[in-house]
Amino acid sequence: MNAEQQLRTDFLYEQQLTNLKLQGKRPATIDAYSRAVRRIIHHFDKAPDTLSTDDLKQYFAQLINTHSWSTVRVDRNGLQFFFKHVLHREWEWLNIVKPQQNK
Predict the structure, then answer these.
(1) Containing domain of residue 51, as a range?
(2) What is the pTM of this model?
């Protein structure tokens, strides 16, 4: 990631933290949702506002293989919050990853 992308990423990450606090989220939720953003930034090594739907599909396909459904669900919710409250974009997460069905 170049310096310009890093500045953009840092700004967006700070916006995520601010919006989580403004929404009254609990400290554990703030930690989990911000970890989801950090994890995807680290995975792609680029600003999260440049991610495509295909990037998200690839990310979640790998995450499902390496983490529990609980982690997948928290990351999905954290990234959905990021898209809605920071990027002001709707994200159809149901088309990317559906929660595991318990029978």
Answers:
(1) 3-95
(2) 0.87
Q: How many CB atoms lie within 10 A of CB 84?
A: 13
Residues in the chain: 103
Note whether residue 101 is domain-resident. Answer: no
Q: Which residues, 6 or more positions from 58, have their beta carbon under 8 angstroms from its beta carbon?
A: none
Q: Give the CATH number, domain containing residue 83.
A: 1.10.150.130
Taking Cα atoms as reference points, which of 47, 29, 34, 41 lies closest to residue 82?
A: 34
State the Cα–Cα distance between residues 42 and 40, nearest whole angstrom.
Answer: 5
Over residues 14-46, the pLDDT tens digits come to 999 999 999 999 999 999 999 999 999 999 999
